[in-house]
C-alpha cells in the first residue's frame, strides 16, 4: 500500500493519539462509524453502531467483575486449576447484575481475531451477539446480527473495532465501563437524532427537556413509567438524578416500566437500560402498541414521564375503553388519549410530566375542550409550562409540558403546601440558549429556575432546604384558582394567566407628558422640512423642463 493510503487508513488511530477529552474521542468514533454507512438505511445503521458499543460495554463490565474476583485474597489460597474454573462461574457474575459473556464473545477475543477471522470480522461479531443473547435471557431478540451482510464494508468495520478497542473507551479508575460507554451510547443517540431530524422523534427527546421533567418531579424512589418510552431516555435521566442527589448506591430505589411500539426502538431501549445498569426487563419482553395492547394493565406508578407522538391521528381507539374517564378522545388526535391513559396509571399520590403540542392547552375540537375541563375540575392538573421554540429538532410544532398529580394536598409527613383547586402556570418561552442556527437548549440555570419555581409553589423539601418561597412573577409565573381557569373557558395557555412582565422604571427617564410634547414638536418640524424640500425639488424639475 502506498504510504499516503496507509496513513489515511490509520487516520482514526492517529487522531486518537493527539486527543484526550471524552467528547473528542467520541467525535472520532462517530466519524469512523459514519464511513460505514454505505447503503444501510438509517434505522439499520443506528442498530449497527449502538450494538457494537453495547457489546463492548457488556464485555468490559464482565472483565471488571472478573478482575474484582481475581483480586480476592481468598482466591490465592486455592489451586490454580480450581481458580480458573471459579473465574468462569456464571453465578459469580449474574448475582452482581453483570451479564455473562461467553469466551468467544469477549471483546479481547474479537479484537485479537478481527484481522484473521474466517469469514471476516462481521461473522465474528454476529456470532458474539448470538452467544450473548443465548447466555442472557433478558437480551433475547435484542442485539443486532447484521454485521456480516453484503452492504457492510468489512475492512472499515475492522478499523472501527480497532478504534473501539482503544483504552479510552474502557472503564478505568473511578470511571467504570458503565460510565464511559453509557456516555458514548447517549452521545450516539443524540448524533443519530440530529442526523435523522423529524424521523428521530420516535426514539429521542432532547436531553434538556427530559432533565426538566425529571428535575420537577424529583423521582427519588418508587415506580417510574413511560408509555411511549422510545430509547429509554426518561429512565436513564431518572437514574442519573437519583445518583446525583443520593449517590449511585440508591439508583435501584427506582424501578422502571415502559412500553414501546417500534421494534427497533424497543431494542435500543433495552440496550440503553442495560448499559446504564438498569433492569432491561422494565420495557417488557416484546414491543407493543400502548393503546391496542397495554402490557401493564395493573400498574400504578409513582411517576409517569412521557413524550408521546404529537397530534397522532392513526391510533387504536375504542370508544368503550375504561381509560376514558373524562371523555372519549377523538380519532383525529390522540393527545387526550395519552393524558387519560397516563392518569389511569397514577398511584394514589402519583405525579406525571408529559410533553405535548401547544394545541393541547386550548383545543376545543371534537370534545377536547370538555375533556380538558373535566380534568381541571377533577383537580388533576398541577402545572402547565410553555416551552421556548427550537428545542425539538424532530418537529417545528411548539410544545408545552403538562404536570398532573393525584394529590395536591399536604400529603402528611411531606408537609407540602396545600395547592388543591390551584394550578401553577409558567411561561418559559423566553428562556433557553441557541447552540446553533436551529437548535435551542435549556441551560442549567434555566432548569434550576423552573424547577425551583415549581418546588417553591408546592413547598417540597428541596425548596425548604434552599429557603425558597413562592410568589407570582408577572410575565413568568402565576398560581391560578380553578374559578379563574373556568373564566378563561378552561384554556391552559400560561400566557393568559402570567400577564406581561413588569418593566423597571428608569428614575432618570423623561416624563411621559414631556416626551410626547417633544416628539410632537420634532414631528411637525420634520413635516415642515419635508414640505420645503418638496417645493425645492418641484422647482428644480420645472427648470429642467424649460
From TrEMBL:
EC assignment: 2.1.1.72
Record family assignment: Belongs to the N(4)/N(6)-methyltransferase family.
GO term, biological process aspect, one: methylation
Domain N6 adenine-specific DNA methyltransferase N-terminal: 26-164
Top-rank EC class of the record's enzyme: transferase
GO MF annotations, alphabetized: methyltransferase activity
DNA methylase adenine-specific domain mapped to chain residues: 178-505
Reactions catalysed: a 2'-deoxyadenosine in DNA + S-adenosyl-L-methionine = an N(6)-methyl-2'-deoxyadenosine in DNA + S-adenosyl-L-homocysteine + H(+)
Transmembrane spans: none
Protein name per the record: site-specific DNA-methyltransferase (adenine-specific)
InterPro entries, A to Z: D12N6_MeTrfase_N (IPR022749), DNA_methylase_A-5 (IPR003356), SAM-dependent_MTases_sf (IPR029063), T1MK-like_N_sf (IPR038333), Type-I_RE_MTase_Subunit (IPR052916)
Keyword annotations: Methyltransferase, Restriction system, S-adenosyl-L-methionine, Transferase
PANTHER family: TYPE I RESTRICTION ENZYME HINDI METHYLASE SUBUNIT, TYPE I RESTRICTION ENZYME HINDVIIP M PROTEIN-RELATED
Amino acid at each position: 500500500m502506498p504510504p499516503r493510503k496507509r496513513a489515511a487508513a490509520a487516520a482514526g488511530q492517529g487522531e486518537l493519539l493527539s486527543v484526550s477529552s471524552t467528547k473528542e474521542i467520541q467525535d472520532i468514533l462517530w466519524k469512523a462509524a459514519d464511513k460505514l454507512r454505505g447503503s444501510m438505511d438509517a434505522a439499520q445503521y443506528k442498530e449497527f453502531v449502538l450494538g457494537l458499543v453495547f457489546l463492548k460495554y457488556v464485555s468490559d463490565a464482565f472483565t471488571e467483575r472478573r478482575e474484582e474476583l481475581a483480586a480476592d485474597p481468598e482466591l490465592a489460597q486455592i489451586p490454580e486449576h480450581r481458580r480458573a474454573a471459579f473465574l468462569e462461574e456464571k453465578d459469580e457474575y449474574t448475582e452482581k447484575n453483570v451479564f455473562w459473556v461467553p469466551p468467544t464473545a469477549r471483546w479481547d477475543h474479537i479484537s485479537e481475531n478481527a484481522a484473521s477471522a474466517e469469514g471476516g470480522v462481521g461473522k465474528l461479531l454476529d456470532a458474539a451477539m448470538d452467544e450473548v443473547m443465548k447466555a442472557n435471557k433478558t437480551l433475547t431478540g435484542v442485539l443486532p446480527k447484521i454485521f456480516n451482510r453484503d452492504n457492510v464494508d468489512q475492512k472499515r468495520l475492522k478499523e472501527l473495532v480497532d478504534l473501539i478497542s482503544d483504552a479510552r473507551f474502557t472503564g478505568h479508575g473511578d470511571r467504570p465501563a458503565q460510565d464511559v460507554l453509557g456516555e458514548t451510547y447517549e452521545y450516539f443517540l443524540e448524533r443519530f437524532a440530529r442526523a435523522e431530524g423529524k424521523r428521530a422523534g420516535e426514539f429521542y427527546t432532547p436531553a434538556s427537556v427530559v432533565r426538566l421533567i425529571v428535575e420537577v418531579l424529583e423521582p427519588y424512589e418508587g415506580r417510574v413509567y413511560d408509555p411511549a418510552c422510545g430509547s429509554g431516555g426518561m429512565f436513564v435521566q431518572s437514574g442519573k438524578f437519583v445518583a446525583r442527589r443520593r449517590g449511585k448506591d440508591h439508583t435501584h430505589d427506582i424501578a422502571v416500566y415502559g412500553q414501546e411500539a417500534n421494534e427497533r426502538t424497543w431494542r435500543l431501549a433495552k440496550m440503553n437500560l442495560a448499559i446504564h445498569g438498569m433492569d432491561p426487563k422494565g420495557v417488557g419482553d416484546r414491543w407493543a402498541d400502548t393503546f391496542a395492547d397495554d402490557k401493564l394493565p395493573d400498574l400504578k406508578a409513582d411517576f409517569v414521564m412521557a413524550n408521546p407522538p404529537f397530534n397522532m391521528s392513526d391510533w387504536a381507539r375504542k370508544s368503550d375503553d375504561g381509560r376514558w374517564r373524562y371523555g372519549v378522545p377523538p380519532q383525529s388526535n390522540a393527545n387526550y388519549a395519552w393524558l387519560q391513559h397516563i392518569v389511569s396509571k397514577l398511584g394514589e399520590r402519583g405525579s406525571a410530566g408529559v410533553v405535548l403540542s401547544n394545541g393541547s392547552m386550548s383545543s376545543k375540537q371534537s370534545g377536547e375542550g370538555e375533556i380538558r375541563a373535566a380534568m381541571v375540575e377533577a383537580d388533576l392538573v398541577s402545572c402547565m409550562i410553555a416551552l421556548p421554540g427550537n428545542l425539538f429538532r424532530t418537529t417545528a410544532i411548539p410544545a408545552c409540558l403538562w404536570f398532573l398529580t393525584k394529590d395536591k394536598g399536604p400529603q402528611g409527613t411531606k408537609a407540602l403546601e396545600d395547592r388543591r383547586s390551584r394550578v401553577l402556570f409558567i411561561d418559559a418561552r423566553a428562556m433557553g440558549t441557541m447552540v446553533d442556527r436551529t437548535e435551542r437548549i435549556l441551560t442549567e440555570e434555566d432548569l434550576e429556575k423552573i424547577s425551583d419555581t415549581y418546588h417553591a409553589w408546592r413547598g417540597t423539601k428541596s425548596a425548604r432546604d434552599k429557603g425558597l418561597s413562592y410568589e407570582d412573577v408577572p410575565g413568568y409565573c402565576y398560581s391560578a384558582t380553578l374559578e379563574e381557569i373556568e373564566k378563561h373557558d378552561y384554556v391552559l395557555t400560561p400566557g393568559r394567566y402570567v400577564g406581561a412582565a413588569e418593566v423597571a422604571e428608569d428614575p432618570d427617564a423623561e416624563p411621559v407628558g414631556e416626551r410626547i410634547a417633544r416628539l410632537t414638536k420634532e414631528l411637525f418640524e420634520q413635516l415642515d422640512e419635508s414640505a420645503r424640500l418638496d417645493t425645492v425639488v418641484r422647482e428644480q424639475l420645472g427648470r429642467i423642463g424649460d
